[in-house]
Amino acid sequence: MHDVDTFVLRTFLALAETGSFSRAGVMVGRSQSAVSEQIRKLEELFGRTLLERTTRSVRLTAEGEHLLVHARAMVAQADAMLARFRAPDIAGEVRFGSPEDFASAYLPDILGVFAAAHPAVELHVTCQLTLPLVEEFEAGAQDLIIVKQDPEKRYPASRPIWRERLVWVAATSLSRPFAEATRGPLPLVLSPSPCVYRSRATRTLEASGVTWSGVFTSPSFSGQAAAVRAGLGYAVMPRAMVPTELVVLHDWPELAEVEIALLGQARLPPAAAALAGFIEERVARR
Fold it and tell me: Closest by alpha carbon to 259, among 99, 54, 78?
């Protein structure tokens, strides 16, 4: 009888997110060699090649992309089971805000598992840019929010929960070496200012002596991805959220990481405190 260890699946998810055996090892608390061995056993179990390995990066094969969907679902189901039977009974209302890109990529799993574990908690979720979320939080309209921030310029009382690796992306038609792409002003697809992803992109280019032009600006991650897909310009995105149809530009200038953090009111109600702790716990397992 064959079985799939959810810890091994977590390692696979970490590798898919980071594109690096060493970074995946940090996420799951294992050495690089241990991560490699776990993936080898997983490929042996399924009889499929799940990764394409190069000297610079690791990419999922088509079979790996298919497994990614099932792995996420299986890990989420295991977490829901644990949370349901280990969690204390909590009731109340939580006003929670999150940036749209985080909400699209991570919140369905996190909030779905939390809601299953705490059916008496009523969630009210708002998705928008970080700055409006902070303004609502400071006005007392949100109990708990997620923010993206520069680790060197943290919001007061923020609780960092993880770092995001940023990468340059483009449509296949625009995939080219940095020196070739920057012979003229580099067309950029951006979020409105202020945005930490935007500042990472523009400051990195300016430090390299490269001029740029904002050809498409949208507060929506999906809108930005569509513009890049259409070949309108280049963008900076979290490595874990790059759509499969876009190309990661590996030889371009390195981008500083962005910090994801929680901001909670000084006196969080029990339901909001439970959600904050749950998010931190889920992130620690990623």
Answer: 99
Alpha carbon of 57 to those of 21, 30, 67, 98, 168: distances in Å? 9, 19, 19, 30, 14
Q: Which amino acid is at 204?
A: T
Mode of pairing for the β-strands spanning 92-98 and 58-60: unpaired
271 in Cβ contact with 121 (< 8 Å): yes
Q: Which residues contact 43 (CB under 8 A, 6 or more apart)?
A: 49, 50, 51
Residue 63 has pLDDT above 90, yes or no: no
pLDDT tens, 238-270?
Answer: 887 888 889 888 889 989 888 888 888 888 888
Mean pLDDT score, 182-201: 90
Angstrom CA distances, 224 to 92, 111, 129, 219, 251, stand at 36, 25, 14, 8, 22
